[in-house]
Amino acid sequence: MTDTVESLIAARETRQWLTGLTTPPADKAEAYAVQDAVARRLGPVTAWKVGAPAPDAEPFRAPINAATVFDGADRLPAKLFQVIGVEAEIAYRFDRDLPAREQPYTREEVLDAVASVHPAWEIVDTRFTGFGSQDGLSHMADQFNHGALVVGPAIADWRSLDPLKESVTLEVNGETKVETVGGNSAGDPVRLLVWMANVGARSFDGLHAGDVVTTGSCTGTVFVEPGSRSVARYGTMGTIELTVD
User: What confidence tens digit (pLDDT) does each residue in 139-180 have?
Assistant: First the structure.
């Protein structure tokens, strides 16, 4: 595993992108172990990405370091990325620790630990020479294609939010790219938060006060060029904008 971790770190530092991993992960456990080792090298973990391909599918996750979390930003430098894939998401910020424990947390306990809910951007990226060019476990090991997380303003009365009914329109340079309602393939995002508290974040001793968990794309991934202006209009959560140039 050491050579895989070192190659992913080196690609970030040198921007010499990888054509593949010398020793690709054999299973999800190995891919997660690589994720965790790279994240610990990169600095404090203050956020997570979590998603699932279907409402009844096992979730997947990746730790996100403080260096790639941006609160309230509407502009990021394009030099941070190899590719720029924008996704409009819903993110939850915790104000209470949920340390790893034997007894599973209930849905109510997890929600009681949430401080606020936010519209958010995830920028997806890759340390490989082409986005989607590798097997799934290799991309999982590479922080599941994470590039940056931009956390928008907290919404009022977040407990009344119904993510399955939330509409989102994604525009790029004034052109509508996606219009959707409840577009997250995982279905109910609270299911993902409960999984994170009970399973996904155990290797970092659970979730911590201040952590942000972004719960997967509502719009799919839209790849944009440097200088593009992206706008996400939510049905009840307001509007967020982002320029990457």
Answer: 999 999 999 999 999 998 899 999 999 999 999 999 999 999
In terms of residue numbers, what domain contains 106? 2-244
Mean pLDDT, the chain, whole residue set: 97
Q: How many domains does the chain have?
A: 1
CA distance 213 to 145: 16
Q: How many CA atoms lie within 13 A of 49 on its CB side?
A: 31
Length in residues, the chain: 245
Count of alpha carbons within 13 Å of 77, Cβ hemisphere only? Answer: 3
* E-state strands within 182-221: 212-217
Contact 161, 223 (CB under 8 A): no
pTM recorded for the entire structure: 0.97
Q: What is the CATH number of the domain that holds 183?
A: 3.90.850.10
Which residues are 176's β-sheet partners? 171
